Amino acid sequence: MSLELSRSDLLAIDPLDVVEDVLEAAGWPAERDEEGTLQVVAETRWGDMGALFAHRPEPAAVHFSMTLDVKPQDGKRALINELVILANERLWIGHFDFWADDGVIVFRYTFPLEGREELTEGEVSAVLAASISAADRFIPAFNFLVWAGKSPRDAIDAVMFETHGEA
């Protein structure tokens, strides 16, 4: 009996199983849809956000995205894109995108799986933490731009202000 895994054996391993384990341990509600995509409810300071994990064998990767509960208005595409760039300059893990066709702002990260069959729990936990941190910090900036009419620079400056200590 051989202990070596063939390429077809590797494709039988579902990398989303590790994601489900991490989500379950963290108490995050999740379920798989008919296409095998893992739908997640991500709890942030600003409310629940819809998120998903999807596995694709070619290229071998697991995609994560979380849709921010921000409703961009028509005509603000250039300003939103500018704010996305400013926010992304401040992120170490993942990035924001504005999907104009869908009218949504998302936080995204893709885990490459080339040469391996599954993710580690640490990777999944780190990306989940980064997504929540990014949403908590930058949703107000997107709302300042969309609803308060602030410029991208003013919106980002407002959320980057940090206080030290307590009053």
TrEMBL record:
<protein>
    <recommendedName>
        <fullName>YbjN domain-containing protein</fullName>
    </recommendedName>
</protein>
<dbReference type="InterPro" id="IPR019660">
    <property type="entry name" value="Put_sensory_transdc_reg_YbjN"/>
</dbReference>
<dbReference type="Pfam" id="PF10722">
    <property type="entry name" value="YbjN"/>
</dbReference>
